[in-house]
Amino acid sequence: MTNFKKYLLCLSLSLLGLDNLSAQCASGVTYITKVTSTSGLGTYESPALGNIEFEFCFKLDEFFESQTNWVHGIFISFGDLQDGVVYELGESGEQNTQHGPRKWIYIDSVKAKQFKLPGVGFYVDDFDGNPRNNYGDNGNGTPKAKFPNLKPFCIKAKYTCGYPRILRPTFTVTGDGTSGGWSNPACPGDEFVSAQGGGNNTGYIVVCGTVLPLQLLSFSGDYSDQHNLLNWTGLADQFFSHYELERKVGNEREYTKVEQFVPSYLNNESGLHEIQYTDPMVAQNTTYYRLKMVEKNLSYSYSQIISISPQNNLKNKLKIRIYPQPIDQLLSVEWSSSSSELLYEIYSLDGKLCTTGILNSLLNNNTQDIFTQQLTKGSYFIRFIERSEIPNANLIPGNSQVFKFIKS
């Protein structure tokens, strides 16, 4: 549930006289203030490399709780700590609470576990060093207390390059209710993911190599049995949101949205997914399709355009079979198409390109072997792309397929 939806829920329950059923609702923003690295900008196009240091902050604006307005913790939960990242107190330092003779202190991971706190960050303390036995910081106004006198809460982070990844901070805000403890069981906390700063002011930092929110591996379509059949495969990470399939018929000027698709990553750590869709709205004219690929920060890009016509000659469709499964040293490929060349790309499950090559034959029915001595044992996927018979021509849009295989 988004923070905005949580706020609406809290407000609705209050108006209905059911505030005692609502959880806490916080309002604020998490943002990255600065990034330094050995090289690189921290974007998808220019990943940060070497030794990376960045600072990120949380600015608390409002806090509403069903019975009180006491906020007690602003921290990174243990589940949101990223492997290999070292966290320490940022330049903002510790500060006095807005109300009462207490102080916001910084608690590192060792002390947080010692006090059985839920994460690394800032907690309200009454000068005994133990945040568990204190009330929190009360704001101005009830409900929806405001905190104009609090400075942002900032944490500094350091990371030394390992494998390619994305760094994105997440703060959690909790209140202590009326118990006098460090948390209210009815208020588990609101999460705020960074949305500003970093590479291209996106709220995240790409480090240590090429990472893409989505790599579209294939997008194709066919006409069959009075329907248009669409199929696409992609490799996505947690920052990709969804696809929007768009359609245009004949000479229409504008594309219209057909349907939205969210990839399922269940039992699929690699992010590799395949989506199929049957469009019953078939016209006699040619139908054009494209994919709008939307990231979680709401930026987007479009796929290549494919066209489907009831008059398509399906005998020229690219048909591929690979065997055996699993393979030892040779991967055999059998294909049938009007093309004389087939480009292949082999990827590891984390999206790294391992090798490429071209299968070439003048026959429509072809069988060739790919040598895989350079690949270690494990799972891979291979992408085939049909090339035009015209020398040095571009790839034919849409004529590509992806398969998964295992090397023993």
Radius of gyration: 27 Å
Q: Portion of residues in helices?
A: under 10%
Number of individual domains: 3
How many distinct beta strands? Answer: 29
* Strand percentage: over 45%
Q: For the record, give the distance between the C-alpha atoms at the N and C termini, rounded to a whole number.
A: 43 Å
Q: Poorly predicted ranges (pLDDT <50, ≥5 residues)?
A: 1-23, 177-182, 389-398
Tell me about the largest β-sheet.
7 strands, antiparallel
User: How confident overall, as mean pLDDT?
Assistant: 79
Structural class determined from secondary elements: mainly beta
Give the overall silhouette.
elongated
Number of helices: 2
Give the structure's gist in a few sentences.
With 408 residues, the chain is mainly beta.
Structure, explained:
The chain has 2 helices and 29 strands. With 408 residues, the protein is mainly β. The chain has 3 domains: 3-207; 212-312, Immunoglobulin-like; 315-408, Sandwich (Immunoglobulin-like).
